[in-house]
Amino acid sequence: MRKKIVAGNWKMNGTLEESTTLFDSINSNSDKFSDNVEVMVSPSFLYLESFINKGSKSVVVAAQNCANNLSGAFTGEISVGMLKSIGVSHVIVGHSERRLIYGESIEDISQKVALVLQSDMTPIFCIGEELEDRKSGNHFDVIEKQMQSVLDLSEKQFESIIVAYEPVWAIGTGETASPEQAQEMHEFIREQLRKKYGVLAENTRILYGGSVKPSNANQIFSKPDVDGGLVGGAALNTDDFLAIIEAAG
Ligand code: PGA
After folding, report:
1. From the CB of 166, is ligand 1 less than 6 Å away?
2. Fewest CB atoms within 10 A around its CB: which of 70, 79, 94, 166?
3. What is the pLDDT of residues 95-126, one digit of tens each?
């Protein structure tokens, strides 16, 4: 059975004080987490080290991005080696905000996935179509293309990846994919992975992201190919995030 994951993507939100309060309040409720759920939060790079040093066994701390080069003259970038050296274990790669606002290409994202894996960390690999793609019926093609970034991995590398399906039209819009739309796409994603990696695809966690909230989490997470959620806005509120974790358990 695949263990569910609820991951909070805090994006560019929160001062040190606000983020620490949020982290501590989630962590202090960890005795209520079900054994069937892994909980992660992804704060700003700036706070990763201090949160990791808190040594929580129940809340994994993930980075939101990494550079697609190992080192060198790349002002403002953060390398996988830097993340690894402070104890980061998981890195979100290919979030649609990175693709759309910062112009990250499928090739850039493939490089990042490979670098994260080479550093023995786990990529949370994000894919998702835009509204026009869905309206024109191209959403499966778009997803298939984006998935190229994880179809050249060795079996061992593949085993550690986590996929997040996040339809762009549902991110931060309050509009959520219906549980049926989510299941349909998750099933498609798993089928593509199965074609390449066979039975290993049965173990891959595929998270849904896009306006997950306490009121819809349960229905979405109950679909057979949905293995939890990547949560943005609702992850900034302790009660909402805890309710979503509970819905996954
Ligand atoms: P949202 O963001 O939950 O605010 O829609 C999800 C994400 O971008 O990961």
Report:
1. yes
2. 70
3. 999 999 999 999 999 999 999 999 999 999 99
